[in-house]
Amino acid sequence: MAAAVPDPAAEDALIPLSALQHYLFCPRQCALIHVEQIWADDARTIEGHLLHTRVDAGGMERRPGVRIERGVALRSFTLGVAGRADVVEFHGTPPRPFPVEYKRGKPKPHRADEVQLCAQAICLEEMCGCPVPQGALFYGETRRRTDVVFDATLRALTQDIASRARAMMAAGITPAPVLSPGCRYCSLHDQCCPERLQQPDKVAGWLRRQLAG
Known about the structure:
single chain; 213 residues; alpha/beta; Lambda Exonuclease, Chain A
């Protein structure tokens, strides 16, 4: 059987896997980064970059019953995403993938990190042709792993977020800001201006009142 010919259009339609995490945290942040190509670093993002650089520099490693690959390229046409995994451990014979994503902080109240990891698992399932039921998040602040089970609920959320992020990026639309407590932790706060842009325009309001009077 002849090998399948790659579809350039399908390849071009893939969005960055990291966009799923950005979208779940804040759709406007996702659009600023992936539609408007705006980025700004702060102490948190720099620490994150350094952590990922140290992880990627480790190269391939073998331990009894485990092969560890770092900086693994991923792709899923089911989700429409492409990106990289920090670490993929291959356990047993035949080897079964187990993705591990490194984060600088600590476990969060939302599921953005879990969605990113689940998307990596779906990529690995598509690429390796075997189930990937679990993975782990390693948080730099707690210095320990948090195991993640890729159950039906998390998979459905991941599919939904991927669909929404793809649609937003294809439309090229940046949502209006919605001020939330998480805004103060966003490195794009100054570029987003949520406090100013969410408030009604004072000049426009004054003009409406004058015309109504």
